[in-house]
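During the no-cost extension, the postdoctoral fellow (Dr. R.K.) reprocessed legacy sequence entries with the updated structure-token encoder. One reprocessed record is reproduced below for audit purposes.
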Amino acid sequence: MLNKRLFLLFIAFSFFHNLSAANSDEEQFDVLFSWLDSFTSLSGTFRQTQLSAYDGFSLESTGDFRCLKPSYFRWHQIAPDDQLVLSDAEFIWHYDKDLETVARRKISDQMASLQVLLGDSTSIKNEYSIVSPTTGYYHLTPRSPNSNFKMVRLYFTKHELSQIEIIDRLGQEQKIELLHLRYNPSLTAQDFVVNASENAELLYDGTSNSPNQELFDTRHPDEQISEFSKSADSISTIPFAAEVRPHSLQAFFGQDHLIGEQMPLRLSIDSGDIHSMILWGPPGVGKTTLARIAANEAKASLIELSAVMAGITDIRQAIESGKNNIKVGKKTLVFVDEVHRFNKNQQDSFLPHIENGTIIFIGATTENPSFEINNALLSRCSVYKLEALSTETLIRLFKEALNLANRSSIYFSDEQLEKVAINSDGDARKGLNVLELILEALENESKDKQELSDKLFAQIFQASVRRFDKKGDYFYDFISALHKSVRGSAPDAALYWFCRLLDGGCDPIYIARRVVRMASEDIGNADPQALSIALNSWQVQERLGSPEGELAIAQAIVYLSCAPKSNAVYKAFNNARSTVQNSNSLEVPIHLRNPTTNLMAELNHGLEYRYSHDEEGSYSAGESYFPEILKDSLFYEPTDNGIESDIKEKLKELRLRDQRSLQKRYP
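Re-encoded structure tokens follow.
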């Protein structure tokens, strides 16, 4: 695997020549190609990070390189282990000094990118599709389906190549930072000759038994190409969404409230002065992408961890890498995806290292940080809320992605892209995956593409899935929206949120229980029948199930939405409970106690109790049923809504009789 990584690094470097031709403006092409042709030799150092697109594994290495047109190339990895890749445009040698092996491969037509390194401007134009989405950033796509690489992105700073990023067809992503470039150094073929050790084993070469030869000394006859130089299957294994992931804020879509011009986060990233943060938002809105862009702008070593798979050992290794990077004056950014899945101890393990600047911490979560992230970690991070992408933003993103990946959008009408955007439900990754499915189907069919596209749309979107979770923020937000719609006397909105809950898989019994709560909390005595209707809908759901039960709940929701509203009982209950919780254990007044035994009667329990049915209007005017210290307490204050207006008048009359009574319990 290491051999393959080194070779991929070598191939990645070759693309920097092509990048000069990336801008679509013809004049700019001439300038860049002139720059490409201005030197015949080049040398420098590199710092590269290899990242797996699937498990977040990250490998860093450093070394130096040199090339001499039109034939020779040398890529020497010094750390973490000693590896050497050499080429003369016909053969590739890989010398592993630690393992003492020399692997030689003949360059096949499938390694077209190597010819690019040793070619000229014309061959580059012929072999690669080149675009320039933004200033200083170029995107190369091999025209040959057999190329080892899916795409290459190259970045220029002041007309000088500064960074190469590649994604190959094996799902690997590499970022190579080029340093200390020297143009036209004095190099000859002898500068590319390296002697292997006496004990080195020559692999995949049946023509030589003397590995201690000069590696560029002899031309060998053709032999069977080994797995080392075979290209990957022409079918890509990397998702379309990862292929078109933006690498700069200029190419980033959405989140203008965070990264718009003059926004604090935008200024922080542009300056490279990154602080620790939590990125909170739904899936597919750019959390991981934003973290990678931040690391790139900060020139920081990026370590990606997935809290689903990583443990305390991985965290310690990341911290150790941060400490080592400090020694060479480099920042370390640790990005933790799904950070809410880390337990308290795992989250706490980052604290001292964030505090002392060993690492910059960025966590991504779909859950509310207030509930899922430790307060200690939150206090050390800024929290940024990312929003679901709008339909308009998604349409623009899809068009740019199709163009960037050299996949024409001719198969998609604006209406179809809008349909993809709507069904993506704010999730760019979801929409890009749908487009990829359709494009793959189109490539395998000879039918009319527009007709096939319509057919695929009908199949793909017959069962769309919208954002919902049964435990997290979306669930409680939907319930909250339903409750507030009922309270606000908006039956149409209430039905919408009810159906959203059902569409997301929410248990109708849970909704019925919440409807009962609404009947008491928001309707109360303004329409006492509301509670009975809510309870009946719950019972229908329990007895009959779906769809009869759901219809009964919908009926209850509409009735409650249209009913007169009163929260007087709800407020009275809360006030009474607060009084109980904030007062001592007051004794029951003597006249309210029950004299169930002779002893209790002798202690005057129930003495002077007034039996209301024996008095006028069945009401004991002037009586009090509170402990004396609470005699003037008033909890329930009826409103003028619905039936409660009659209750209000009744209580007003009774309280007036209390005031006029000559038999007041307490003075």
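The chain has five domains: 2-232, 255-385, 391-463, 473-565, 587-660. Residues 8 and 382 are 37 Å apart (CA to CA). The remaining legacy entries will be reprocessed before the final report is submitted.
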